[in-house]
Amino acid sequence: MFSAVIVLCAHAIMPLEATAALPAAEDRADGWRALFDGASTNGWTPKIAGHALGDDPYGTVKVEDGLLRVVYDGYDAPFKDRFMHLFYDHPFDSYDLLVEYRFNGEQVPGGPGWAWRNSGAMLHCQNPLTMTKDQAFPVSIEGQFLGGDGRHDRTTMNLCTPGTHVVMGESLDRRHCINSNSQTYHGNQWVTAVFKVRPGHVQHYVGETLVMEYSDPQLDPNDADAEQLITDPEHLEWNRGWISLQGESHPIDFKRVWIRHVDPKATVKD
User: Fold this and answer.
1) pTM value?
2) Does position 170 have pLDDT exceeding 80, yes or no?
3) For the chain, what is the mean pLDDT?
4) Number of folded domains in the chain?
5) pLDDT beyond 70 at 103
6) Per-residue confidence at 77, pLDDT binned at 50, 70, 90?
7) Does residue 269 lie within any of the structural domains?
8) Residue 203 has what pLDDT?
């Protein structure tokens, strides 16, 4: 069967400004919009550690059979921590985000052990134009996607916090990664991740099941990358930013990437 493939060209830098246009029309009557159109990488720009924004000489990102795919066929070994973040060209603050993903294939040789079947959706990312060439991860809060090995428990939709902290319960939590209470998803099955993002409050769902909740995202003043973004040390709140999808050395497919604007005054129950 003929398989249409679109590869994101190297050096093709898309606009990444706060005024970038949102998708023109709503895809569904309930307000969801598709950020990935199923046919192209329009609206998305890669940032690979060690490379300039928009430079993807390895063909890491392609569209094939209606899927947005992160692949590593073009990488030479060893991997050398060439982590990739695929940015949507518009910042958001109050929204629901749906990401349907599956892991497949084998990890690229030299990828770190912790990155096996590991990806994520990065929320409240710093503007990618402010990332340094060698910066491995954007300052953000990450909904971490993990896949199982067929035998052991390994939760997904965990929280990781590059350059940030959050409040869990009533206390500031400085742990870098915090596990959710999800079940484990083994093999190449599709998983539907949903984030309810409101100013000062975020929930992670797998399907309709709540698996993680936290509040008050804020910059970490002791992190070198975050320090560059702090304009007032008395106000570290971090409630707005770009969305990126992660490539950490294991192939992953994305089927749906949908967003729905929510009134900032709404609660996570709305």
Assistant:
1) 0.90
2) yes
3) 91
4) 1
5) yes
6) confident
7) no
8) 98
Torsion angle in degrees (nearest 10) through CA of 219, 95, 181, 87: -60
What's the token pair of residue 98? Answer: 């749906």
209 in a domain, yes or no? Answer: yes
| 198 HSE (CA, 13 A, CB side) | 15
Show Cβ contacts of residue 224 under 8 Å, excluding neighbours closer than 6 positions: none
Residue 266 in any domain: the answer is no
CATH number of domain containing 111: 2.60.120.560
Q: What is the pLDDT of residues 197-232, one digit of tens each?
A: 999 999 999 999 999 999 999 999 999 999 999 999
How confident is the model at residue 74, as a pLDDT? 96
Is there a domain that residue 251 lies in? yes
Cis peptide before 78, with omega less than 30 degrees from 0? yes
Which phi and psi angles does 210 have, rounded to 5°? -70, 125
- Please spell the DSSP secondary structure of the chain, one letter per residue: ----EEEPPTT-PPP--TTPPPPSS-SSTTS-EESS-SS--TTEEEEETTS-TT--TT--EEEETTEEEE--TTPPSS-TT--EEEEESS-BSSEEEEEEEEE-S-PPTT--GGGTTEEEEEEEEPPGGGS-TT--S-SSEEEEEE-B-SSS--B-SEEE-TTEEEEETTEEE--SEE--S--B-BTT--EEEEEEEETTEEEEEETTEEEEEEEEEEE-TTSHHHHTT-S-TT--B---BEEEEEESSS-EEEEEEEEEE--TT--TT-
Tokens of 195: 């984030």
